[in-house]
Amino acid sequence: MKHLIYLVVLLAVTISTPIAHANGEEIRECDFKVNRCVSGDARVTLADGVVKRVEVNVYYCGRPGNLGYSCTIDSSRSDQDSKWSEEGGATMIANVSPFNPIEPDRVRVTVGRHVSIDLDEAQPLGRCGVGAELPRAIVIPAQRKACRVWLRAP
Is 6 helix (H, G, I), strand (E, B) or coil? Predict the structure, then answer.
């Protein structure tokens, strides 16, 4: 099992660097493991520095003998489930059909040396299974490192 974990970490370090494509696209991605029960990955696709797609997967372990829980965000400018806008140097991605329509349900992505994914106003309901929640924020570093993740206070 330890060998598998080392292999996964090595693979994550190897592929976490930005990948440039001939068509002007760049993918910034990273993996994370916050503790023994919270892990995941994040990926942002850019085209000429503009955010085109955001993918976030967060996994929580379940009780012994049970499956775990997950949260997923997969949004692109071409989908019909979100409304994209630019605000103060950041890309705002609003869910057009939030679980609770009274509260905001949006993700803020800021691109610079690092890519910051602010999930503080993203609703976990509708995206997460029972027992899972979105982190407050994820930062994809410019170098070969794991994501930096801030969980919500219990």
Answer: helix
